[in-house]
Amino acid sequence: xxxxxxxxxxxxxxxxxxxxxxxxxxxxxxxxxxxxxxxxxxxxxxxxxxxxxxxxxxxxxxxxxxxxxxxxxxxxxxxxxxxxxxxxxxxxxxxxxxxxxxxxxxxxxxxxxxxxxxxxxxxxxxxxxxxxxxxxxxxxxxxxxxxxxxxxxxxxxxxxxxxxxxxxxxxxxx
Length: 174
Known about the structure:
3 strands, single chain, NB-ARC, P-loop_NTPase, plant defense, mainly alpha, Apaf_helical, three-stranded parallel β-sheet, ADP binding
């Protein structure tokens, strides 16, 4: 709820990022996921065309994905990895690739990020301050015509600021 996926999407969807990579893929990783489904989804997104992909064994999918990606500069986003074991089951499908290839993932578990690459510095979006939260809530919840020149009606502002406090700085909650 702090904006990890939103931040990753902003990077993923930038024109200069898309132009930099030969192929891109986005995969959502739930707590209960099938590595085979993730691999075949990535293969489809990077342009691989195999009619029998759905019936391929996991090891064949991994081999195929490595073959497709090894000569490309790729960006693969794995959104919302929960466990170290999930990373272990997925990372084996990604070859070194061309210089500049990247696998980026989001996680709510800092230990998973450190486990995946102990040398990296994970990006941790900060929680919003009460003032930032109020600004976000008022921009999204209140149409411009509700605000008078003096500001919002006192009951709107009081209730809104209470909502902000209860949301604890999480943009998604607001």
